[in-house]
Amino acid sequence: MLLVYVRPADESRGWEKIGQTETIWDDLRPRFVESFLMPVFDDGSSLKGLRVEIYDRDGDGTNLDNQDFIGAAECLCQEILEIPGHSITLELEDPKKPRKKRGNVILMLDGVIPCDPPVSILFNFTASIPGVANKKLVLIISKAMRKGQWTPVYRSEEARGKVTTFDPCTISKEKLCAGNDLRSFRIELHRKKRFDLEQVGFFLSNLQKLSEATVGQSFRWWSPARGLQKSGVVLLTKQIEDTSMVFDINMSGI
Question: Is 0.85 surpassed by the pTM of this model?
Fold first, then answer.
């Protein structure tokens, strides 16, 4: 899990914790879904510093002293804003083990268009992918960022079956596409391995395309094994309201 702290421009206030991510178990390259809203001006003046701490959780307890500290990293918000793509890679450090490499962490900043009133999107996903029937699958939704980068905004539970049915996914429009109907996102399927995920395939869309699609319409599917397929994803049903949207989608990867 990862803890996030900010330091206001008034440095006398010190570090203030604004939250922590979900816990991702048994993954050596975790991509955290939890994000945090912060008021940051273009020059980074509203918040001076950003600090993250990463822990290897050994149980469900909340006492950090009982968890394994991996390392921490700090930077100025302005540093991230000045980098093309608004993404920075920092080396994790542990003062008690200064000579040992602790790994890296990638931090991204993204602007959000507020939705008033809020809009929620409900996805129902099923999958029947050749070659991975009855394997443990994880569904991830990733949002497009600057400079060709992607960041996960939703991660499902592990599911398996000849036809895999995932728990319904409810997500806000702000989190899915930063409030922008034209912002691309990917619906990705991954096979759960012992300490990592292996991508099975994905399809690319945006909220405007899905909203305008007709029931029964197919979308292109991409997989590492077969490349880009003309079909493989079908919109089964949809329901569009002013403050909510519902999409039922089947992925066959054929």
Answer: yes
